[in-house]
Amino acid sequence: MRWPIKPDKNNNNSREAKNMINIGIVGAGYFGSVHAKAIAEIDGLQVAGFCSGTFAHAQACADTFGGTAYADCADLLADARIDAVVIATPHHLHESLAIVAAKAGKHILLEKPIAPTKSAGDAITQAAKAANVALMIGHVVHFMRPCMVAQSIIESGELGRPMLGYSQMIKLWMEENRKDWHLKTETGGGMLMTGGIHALDVLVWLMGQEVEAVSAQIGTYFHTQEADDSALLGLRFKGGGIGQIQSIGYRNGAMDYGAEIVCEQGTIGIDFAKGVAIGREGVWTEVEDSLDADPMHDAVVRQWQSFQESIVKGIEIAITGDYASHIVSVIEAAFQSNTERREVTL
To answer: Which of 103, 137, 204, 248 is the most exposed place for a label (fewest CB within 10 A)?
Structure first.
């Protein structure tokens, strides 16, 4: 309850008066456009500016979606008309940009991971708290219908407590939007930090427990690059549960993205291509209305609606910096486990 927008009675341009949250998009690449399309569908939100790697690209985005193109991120953050920003830049730039945005008084939707290291993530969270601005981390799977349906089943208590689970993200690694920084460990690249983190996030969130210890095997098996393209993780949860993660960026194959949560009285199967099913008495039963027509777009729309509600009404942030830093700490422990060939306690 920390971030309701309070109107300035002496300012006709107050946020309440204009009833609009103006958003600047920092990092107007592929996913910046995904955000812009989602924002355009939501009453009370509008794209007000773009900053990208080049001014020409920022201008092209502004021409397409509206708003102002900025040659420098500092100019966007200095613009008093901008109320909030989405930061969708390379991972290693998250810390510096988010801290500057917080100090500029901008609410922040920061793409996952929060940062390449837990310490950097914690610094971002502290900066947002110090500036009293809303900070939400873009772990978008929380807003995908299959995960939302699965979470509602768990919360109902119908199947009892989650006891163990597994989650996998197995996909093509070298996609069209892959950049050089994705291939280097020092810039926060690699399949686990980029794609496999979704599988990790799904399992940690649905198990409802923090991770206590990690064992992992990580390597680069399909590509010539510094960063990983494959990882297998074993997790021990503080509540007594256990789990497994598969993060594989293949050279050639077929996508497999889903999870299975085994509860005391049944199993929840999540398939991001087919939806949700409940397993009981040896039979799988499909759950109706558990898949969106346009999964990523619809999830990003819900993500922005949730963030909007937090900003305007002061409702608790759905995905906090502390949670996101915990996810990164699990990945850090996984790399340590792989190097030292042992289970690592967080």
So the answer is: 103
Strands 211-219 and 344-345 turn out to be antiparallel
Q: With contact defined as beta carbons under 8 Å apart, do 43 and 49 qualify?
A: no
163: Cα within 13 Å, side-chain hemisphere: 8
142-293+327-345 CATH fold: Dihydrodipicolinate Reductase; domain 2 (3.30.360)
Over the chain (346 residues), the average pLDDT of each successive run of 10 is 30 48 91 94 97 92 95 95 97 98 98 98 98 98 98 98 98 92 96 98 98 98 97 97 98 96 98 97 97 96 97 95 98 98 98
- DSSP lists the bridge partners of residue 247 as 169, 231
Give the domain 15-139+300-319 fold.
Answer: Rossmann fold (3.40.50)
Q: Residue 144, exposed/middle/buried by CB under 10 A (0-12, 13-18, 19+)?
A: buried
Q: Please give the structure tokens belonging to residue 74.
A: 């500092």
